[in-house]
Input
Amino acid sequence: MKHKRLVCFDFDDTLFHTPKPEEGKPFFLEKTGNVWPHRGWWGKADTIDIDIFDIPLNDWVYDKFLHFSDNSENFVMLATGRLKKVEGMRENIDRIFEKNDIEFDEVHLNWGGDTLHFKIKLFEQKIKSLRVEEFIMFDDRELHLPHFIEWAKTQSIKITVVDVVNKTETIIQGTEV
Output
């Protein structure tokens, strides 16, 4: 089936309000009786363990997800900077989706390296392989959004970059190739 539109959602602080280290580490101690056992935060599957943390949906983004996933012309995927190689990461993400009855056409975890570069490379691959006419992306990272907009200006299709924090969108009409 030919899809007209590729729609991509980010995970942390976009589709879901995942805990940040400032509140997550004290909560982990309170819930488990143990001090956070790791050095980092975002690269650990424990940070999104639904047996420990409540991971609520971002209702505004979830409504957008429902809107786009209800249309068969859309290919709806998730792309996250969470690392694919981390044991338990994909399983914890899948448990969160299952708990919230969410299904994507594809789910992509970072295969390694910088999140921004991972996402741009993934977007280019999917736009090319699906041959879509339009790409819509939802993200929260203030530092990444201007880079996505600049990248979009180099693409040949219409791209909409949605800033989920400010609930704004930037539409870039594709360049003629």
The radius of gyration is 17 Å. The chain has a mean pLDDT of 96. The first helix runs from residue 21 to 32. Strands lie at 5-9, 74-83, 106-110, 134-139, 158-163, 168-172.
